[in-house]
Amino acid sequence: MRVLITGAAGFLGSHLVDRFLREGHEVVGLDNFITGSPDNLAHLAGHERFEFVRHNISTYTYVAGALDGILHFASPASPIDYLEHPIATLKVGALGTHNALGLAKAKGARFFLASTSEVYGDPLVHPQPESYWGNVNPIGPRGVYDEAKRFAEAITMAYHRAHQVDTRIVRIFNTYGPRMRPHDGRVVSNFIVQALRGAPLTMYGDGSQTRSFCYVDDEVDGIYRLFLHGDAQPTNIGNPREFSVRELAEIVRELTGSSSTLAFMDLPEDDPKVRQPDITRAMTMLGWEPSVDLREGVRRTIDYFRQILPS
Ligand code: UDP
To answer: Ligand 1 centre from 239 Cα, in Å?
Structure first.
């Protein structure tokens, strides 16, 4: 196959590029580096089945040659990023998804949307099955991301129904691992970087809010299987094991051997109190479930940050 991956220089996008190349496919990677980094693709310089195009998918996009798949992963995705780039976030979810769908239709390519657990907002149903419609504040600070992704899902289903485009929608839950940026702002990378520097761990609120953290290799494996063997309905891909942020802080302190203290700070507005995927659909349809537990994944992520951080 020859596939186009938008957001190819991002954390998840670059791991997905690696997976498609490892499976023997050709990949065209596209990114405008708003939050992605060329470093994430540096190891692919000169790779004969990989080409890179620096471009903003939210503007008119043309890619020469046949395409079998388009995987739309471009978007700021960390709360600090989409707060800094609110309009670009709305545009890439709306205009970027429209452009990518139009290209998929023109090429007869399968379209794969990277959606998010944020479509469930601050959920009133726990854990979250795909049938839950969510509890989102459209005008809050997170609304730019949540509503962009909800629009992206809606237009993906519209192209599926009106134009018979073969589509997939993955709802990605908190994912972590190597290639996260040290200043990404997400809790796993923040805590590890702070612990390695001996700085206080920034705990937003009292740390009783929960998340369910998926190691990147598991996430990419679920995405790859969904691309090949899924259907058009949205599918949760994430690790169902739920931890409080406080528990995560303890695990990071233990595994880094750090004596960092905790610095309690205000909980950001509309911060979801709980989050846990119901992955029954992925397990049944794809035979997929995560295999890397949090301690093992955090260990590997600590190793990565030890390598890239100045000592
Ligand atoms: N969080 C925290 N300290 C940090 C960063 C995040 O306590 O330095 C909390 C944040 O308030 C949220 C959870 O950790 O409750 C996960 O935040 P993250 O930004 O990783 O992702 P989210 O799931 O909120 O999109």
So the answer is: 16
CA-to-CA dists, residue 192 to 24, 97, 199, 307, angstroms: 34, 33, 10, 13
Query: Which whole-number Å values give the CA distances from 14 to 8, 44, 131, in the listed order?
Result: 5, 10, 30
Ligand 1 center from residue 187 Cα (angstroms): 5
Residue with tokens 């203290």: 261
- The CATH number corresponding to 179-211+241-276+292-308 among 3.40.50.10170, 2.60.40.3580, 3.90.25.10, 3.80.30.20 equals 3.90.25.10
Closest residue by Cα to atom 23, ligand 1, is: 174
- The response to whether residue 253 sits with its C-beta less than 6 Å from ligand 1 reads no
Give the CA radius of gyration of the chain.
Answer: 19
CA 209 to ligand 1: nearest atom: 15
- State the average pLDDT for the chain: 97
Q: What is the pLDDT of residue 311?
A: 74
Contacts of residue 284, defined as CB under 8 A and 6 or more positions apart, other chains included, come to none
pLDDT digits (tens, 9 = 90+) for 62-89: 999 999 999 999 999 999 999 999 999 9
Active site residues: 145
